[in-house]
Design brief:
Shape of chain A: elongated
Strand content of chain B: 25-35%
Radius of gyration of chain A: 22 Å
Number of strands of chain A: 0
Helix content of chain A: over 70%
Structural class of chain B: alpha/beta
Structural class of chain A: mainly alpha
Order of helices and strands of chain B: EEEHEEHEHHHEHEHEEHH
Number of helices of chain A: 11
Helix content of chain B: 25-40%
Largest sheet of chain B: 6 strands, mixed
Order of helices and strands of chain A: HHHHHHHHHHH
Distance between the termini of chain B: 54 Å
Radius of gyration of chain B: 19 Å
Number of helices of chain B: 9
Chains: A mainly alpha (276), B alpha/beta (261), C alpha/beta (268)
Shape of chain B: globular
Oligomer: heterotrimer
Distance between the termini of chain A: 12 Å
Chain lengths: 276, 261, 268
């Protein structure tokens, strides 16, 4: 059975998929359900949740609709998380494949670069990058990716080193396949399964890093994000705790969903490996 | 006239635990067109190392290999990749020799594509022709290779090897992992391919009975050296080396009388 | 005087977890003490499944039907005591690289069963291990005790696996394609070794192989399997000289040795 159907069979995979579906749906539907700019002021400030039918989750310190902000923030948080993770995985798998396949001095050089990026704590790296260049969405994505690519690079390289010795790689060489084709079409697809398991963790970490950057005021100021909402609520934490708790819970649910889906994918791949 | 394929004074050593091991020591032999030469010997004698060097999967330390009038070991880069179509290999492990994600059509189509044997639109038909040549139906093309049985996988491996119409085929213990009934069929296939296309074959095996079934001549190896060479029948009926004698004695024979020592 | 057979298998069927078809169908067989039984058949015929069932090595979730009656005692409580894996039954696997633990020394692995089942002290077990390594004809047994599996050849590893298997003096030795991963010279030597050990120690041997000639050199009785069923069984010379089933005939005719007519015509 295919990987996808196996994911559906595991409890974790199903729950994770369900949570993410809700989050993605809210993000995608945001421009339709809440067509106005979420950062626009719609009512009096600090209306508590569940008191006004038109404003189910109340308003924040400036009078903006919390629910609208929540929905729109789902888009930006998921988008940043997924893009940053995709960029990290792309850079990581390419570097890892080149290093593992080429060996020798190229491997050494690439691994020393990987070491350098791995030693610096990824959050500090992202922080330094954004504060130097300036906060905007693409920069935030690049900053997070820079801190996250080193782990998939190492994992890919380890897989490639093992696969490189298999007979089917020797067979590809004997039929005259070009080395680049061998590396990227024969070896890499078979090296991916454990890296995919890591992918879920990278997405979760990216979402959290983005929230942390926004919390510190280093996110893009023109878009609403959960981290930004939590930061806004910091000043009124004692009187209107809901302003921080609600986006915090959304963040928690999303990260949990990503993690559970990753576990489900992990199990699906492990099941496939065992069956072979 | 230069022989079709010749190995001259080939040697290879490697370092293991601080000692130098001579994997191949001054190995020489020739192969004519349409001939099958057996490389027989116990494990560790160097026959697989020799096969890998001939397939340019490992470098040699000394000696030369001449093929089609060229210094085979000196080729490199694009020139080597293009020339590889003339020498193909069938591996022992039918499971590990294929990309786990490949279908039969993928496996056979790759050499066709790389060496442009036929036009892209004719590729599918050529794959079917090759499948039928090795005794599998056209319906096998879409199936994942690893779902097939050992014997079927080895047929696909042979189809993949002959796809680019090589003149030399190296079979590295290619039937050792197969069931006995399947073994006979694969050997039959090899012999028929040879009589049809004039393919030369280097047949590596530790089993002298298998070598005797398909090889015209045999080179017996031990500890990296060729200790005996000659026509298969004469080596088996009149072995000169201790290794050959041990290989002959080791072939299990059907004992219909029961007397256990 | 007729003794109860050591093992009586009645109507045994085994289906692995999530398998569509049973791997063994309604197999009934008897094994006498000190007998040498060869189980032959192609891959997928169920030979290994039968061996693992006898040794209690089937994976979790495998469903079995039928009975295994040891020493004439169908009583389940008795079955809990006999046979004890390691002490009464020993199993030798096909791939010695996979069946030996790469991080333990050879001495530790060979002594393990003796320490566990014979309750020897470490010192006694080490001496016992050295004797076993000598019995399986390995050179330098003292040096080998501290060596690791990767430092010796495949054939030597299989000898170590055999030494470890007979360590606690088991009554039953199951060799599951124990020579299939070895070259013919080593195969012949290991087969001879097994034959000698089994005679010297009075063990019962179950020898699984796809090579009918190897079976004929080692066994008194042969059982032929095909697609999970027992096709034919009997004394070795009867099965080989007068095969009753088409499958046995096919196995016999596929056999290649130095007298079979070669497939190619050679210039004389």
């Amino acid at each position: 059975m295919t990987v996808l159907s196996q994911v559906f069979r595991s409890r974790e995979g199903l729950v994770g998929l369900a949570i993410l579906f809700v989050v993605a749906a809210s993000g995608l539907s945001a421009p339709f359900v809440f067509p106005n700019d979420p950062l626009s002021i719609v009512a009096a400030p600090l209306i508590p949740p569940f008191t006004d039918r038109a404003l189910p989750l109340g308003t924040d310190t400036l009078g903006r609709d919390v629910l609208a902000c929540l929905f729109h923030a789902a888009r930006s948080s998921l988008l940043v998380g997924l893009c940053a993770a995709a960029a990290a995985l792309l850079i990581g798998t390419v570097m890892g494949t080149l290093a593992g396949f080429a060996g020798g001095i190229i491997d050494e050089a690439l691994m020393r670069i990987t070491d350098a990026f791995q030693i610096v704590p990824s959050f500090l790296l992202a922080l330094a990058f954004v504060s130097t260049i300036g906060p905007s969405l693409p920069i935030v994505v690049i900053a997070i990716a820079l801190g996250a690519w080193a782990d998939p690079a190492r994992l890919t390289r380890a897989q490639v080193l093992s696969i490189r010795e298999r007979d089917y790689v020797a067979s590809a060489r004997t039929i005259g396949m070009h080395p680049m084709e061998i590396a990227f079409r024969q070896i890499l697809p078979n090296a991916l399964p454990p890296v995919m398991a890591l992918a879920a963790i990278i997405v979760a970490a990216a979402i959290l890093t983005e929230a942390a950057l926004s919390f510190l005021g280093l996110g893009d100021p023109n878009i609403v994000t959960w981290g930004g909402m939590i930061a806004e609520g910091r000043n009124v934490l004692r009187s209107a705790a809901y302003l921080s708790i609600i986006p915090g819970m959304a963040l928690l649910a999303t990260v949990l969903g990503v993690y559970l889906l990753g576990e489900g994918i992990n199990k699906a791949f492990a099941g496939q490996g065992a069956a072979r | 006239m230069e022989p079709f394929f010749s190995v001259n004074h080939l040697s290879k050593r490697y370092q293991a635990r601080g000692r130098t091991v001579q994997a191949l020591d001054d190995v020489s032999f020739t192969l004519a067109r349409g001939e099958t030469l057996g490389l027989a010997g116990p494990s560790g004698c160097g026959k697989s190392t020799l096969a890998r060097i001939i397939m340019r999967l490992s470098p040699a330390d000394g000696g030369e290999v001449r093929f089609q009038g060229q210094n085979w070991l000196a080729l490199s880069g694009q020139e080597l990749r293009a020339a590889r179509r003339h020498v193909q290999m069938v591996f022992q492990d039918t499971h590990g020799a294929f990309n786990p994600r490949a279908t039969v059509a993928d496996a056979i189509g790759e050499p066709l594509r790389i060496h442009r044997i036929v036009a892209p639109r004719d590729r599918q038909a050529e794959i079917v022709r090759l499948l039928e040549r090795v005794g599998l139906g056209a319906d096998y093309a879409a199936r994942p290779v690893l779902q097939l049985s050992g014997g079927q996988r080895q047929r696909v491996a042979i189809a993949r090897a002959i796809a680019c119409r090589p003149s030399l085929l190296v079979m590295d213990e290619a039937v050792s992992a197969l069931d006995v009934s399947v073994r006979a069929q694969i050997l039959e296939l090899l012999v028929s391919l040879q009589s049809e296309t004039g393919l030369s074959c280097l047949f590596v095996s530790h089993d002298l009975a298998v070598i005797r079934a398909v090889c015209h001549r045999v080179a017996v190896m031990e500890m990296g050296r060729v200790v005996e060479q000659g026509e298969t029948d004469s080596v088996i009926s009149n072995p000169q080396s201790d290794t050959a004698r041990r290989l002959i004695a080791a072939v299990p024979t059907l004992r219909k009388d029961q007397s256990h020592a | 005087m007729s003794l109860a057979p050591l093992l009586k298998i009645e109507g045994l069927s085994v289906t692995y977890h999530c398998a569509a078809q049973p791997s063994l169908r309604n197999v009934s067989l008897q094994l006498q003490e000190k007998q040498r039984l060869a189980i032959i058949g192609e891959s997928g015929s169920g030979k290994s499944t039968l061996a693992r069932c006898i040794a209690g090595l089937l994976p979790r979730g495998a469903k079995t039907e039928g009975q295994l009656i040891w020493n004439g005692h169908p009583d389940k409580s008795h079955q809990a005591r006999f046979p004890t894996p390691g002490r009464d039954i020993a199993y030798i696997f096909q791939d010695p690289s996979a069946s030996l633990n790469p991080v333990l020394t050879i001495g530790e692995q060979v002594a393990e069963a003796a320490i566990r089942h014979l309750r020897l002290t470490r010192k006694q077990a080490r001496a016992h291990a050295r004797d076993l390594l000598t019995e399986v004809q390995l050179p330098n047994p003292d040096a080998l005790l501290s060596a690791y599996p990767h430092q010796i050849s495949g054939g030597q590893r299989q000898r170590v696996a055999i030494a470890a298997a007979i360590s606690a003096a088991p009554k039953i030795l199951i060799a599951d394609e124990a020579t299939s991963a070895l070259d013919t010279i080593t195969q012949a030597a290991i087969a001879r070794l097994l034959g000698r050990l089994v005679s010297a120690n009075g063990m019962t041997l179950i020898f699984i192989t796809h090579d009918i000639a190897l079976a004929s050199s080692l066994a008194d009785e042969i059982a032929v399997f095909q697609s999970g069923r027992l096709i034919e069984s009997g004394k070795a010379q009867d099965v080989l000289s007068n095969p009753a089933s088409g499958d046995t005939k096919r196995l016999l005719s596929s056999h290649l040795d130095l007298t079979t007519p070669p497939q190619i015509r050679r210039a004389s």
